[in-house]
Design brief:
By secondary structure, this protein is α+β, with helices and mostly antiparallel strands. It has a single domain, classed as RNA-binding S4 domain (Structural Genomics Hypothetical 15.5 Kd Protein In mrcA-pckA Intergenic Region, Chain A), CATH 3.10.290. 28% of the residues lie in helices and 16% in strands. The chain has a 5-stranded antiparallel sheet with strand order 2-1-3-4-5. Strand 1 and strand 2 form a beta hairpin. Helix 1 packs across helix 2. The N and C termini lie far apart (62 Å). The relative contact order is 0.13.
Length: 129
């Protein structure tokens, strides 16, 4: 963890606590305005500070976190969870479950496109008239 005088870039922190798979993906998210502090987008080179509340937009959800620890290197998933506190409201978390509801048109990954017969059945359920 960080000691006094050491500074960690925001893109490096996002990568270290496993919000993004690569550091370049974390930097790109910052540049696109998907990481926000106090209603302002964060630059990848900005320094991280403790107890800061950040919003991370990952469509369709906006996650909210409080920074508790600042690691110097990438951590395992178990240890990474200790570095932030999840403050995401329940309504935002529920947006991830909407896709799995029947009638939404959820299709398991790897099933491919529906056949003509399956499409007729889907259309029948969506619009019974």
């Amino acid at each position: 963890m960080v000691t006094d005088g050491e500074k960690v870039r925001f893109d490096k922190w996002l990568w270290a606590v496993r919000f993004y798979k690569t550091r370049s993906m974390a930097a790109a998210a910052c540049r696109k305005g998907k990481v926000i502090i106090d209603n302002m987008p964060v630059k990848p080179s900005a320094n991280v500070s403790l107890d800061e509340i950040i919003n991370v937009k990952k469509t369709p959800v906006i996650f909210t976190y409080r920074i508790k620890k600042i690691p110097l290197k990438r951590l395992s998933a178990k240890l990474a969870k200790e570095c932030f506190e999840d403050l995401t409201p329940q309504e935002e978390s529920d947006k991830l479950k909407v896709k799995e509801l029947p009638g939404f048109g959820y299709r398991k990954r790897g099933d491919g496109r529906p056949t003509k017969k399956e499409r007729r059945i889907i259309d029948k359920y969506k619009d019974p008239l």
